[in-house]
Amino acid sequence: MARTLRMEIETFPIAGSFTISRGSRTEAQVIVCIIEQDGHVGRGECVPYSRYGETIDSVREAIEGASELVERGGDRNELMEHMPPGAARNAIDCALWDLEARLSGRRAHLKACAMPPRPVPTAVTVSLGSPQDMAAEARKYAHRPLLKVKVGAENDAARIHAVASVAPDCRIILDANEGWTEENIRENLLVAAEFHIALIEQPLPAGKDALLRNIPHPVPICADESVHSSRDLESLVGLYDAVNIKLDKAGGLTAALDLRDRAREMGFGVMIGCMVGTSLAMAPAVLLAQDADWVDLDGPLLLAKDRKPALRYSGSLVSPPDAALWG
User: Fold this and answer.
1) Best CA proximity match to 302, nearest among 12, 9, 11, 10
2) What is the CATH number of domain 3-111?
């Protein structure tokens, strides 16, 4: 068995800009890990995220540091022991899933899913902006079943009012990206409840989670930046109602499946989310999302142009990947 590992760094322009409480972006930079063995190629994509101290260079170096393990035939379980959660491990892990499927001729979903995978409905994201701009954007998607609305700035009550007013038939997720404070969270939660918001993601900065224990939850609250692996779950009991699982945080599909199952056992709701990446990054997440309560896998829809082959999006439904793309 001769196995090789290499990487490609790619840039995909975002359609317009993507704005959250921490700033705006106009492009997505991704790293694709490519593992070749016996004439077969497995690929996995990751998105380095500065919020977690990651850069393109640091993730590339981490992947290079694991190349000896991969090239000598190390498996996904060894990878879990060798590398911490994060984007680098995600790219390698997903490439190994893809390679295993191609070497065996058996699709990845046969291992990852209890049932044959089906299309799942995904949220569509409305970027942070003025209440007027956000209402105009939400109005375009008012026919969709689920919106994810970025908040986390001053006067979020006006944003919530504006968006909910133009999309009365949508379930709405508010994502504050750690942008709320001890001073405004109670007021914002009450406004969210008034407009029948379905879920609120990470209202407070990670590390200030304990404040949630003494705050009523008129709307379910979901951990995002505060949860990376199954080891984080115990400390979140009684603080959060749900967890957002992302492959780049968990460090691959292998770890994310474990995190999802453990979260269910502990009574958490489950959301499957993503960074802004291409269909290659979303493909394994669609398998992970088969029994999720909320799905937010619209990353490719935020791009000016996706890679080919791509996932199939039909309205709000995203289909499982074809073999030509992944798995």
Assistant:
1) 12
2) 3.30.390.10
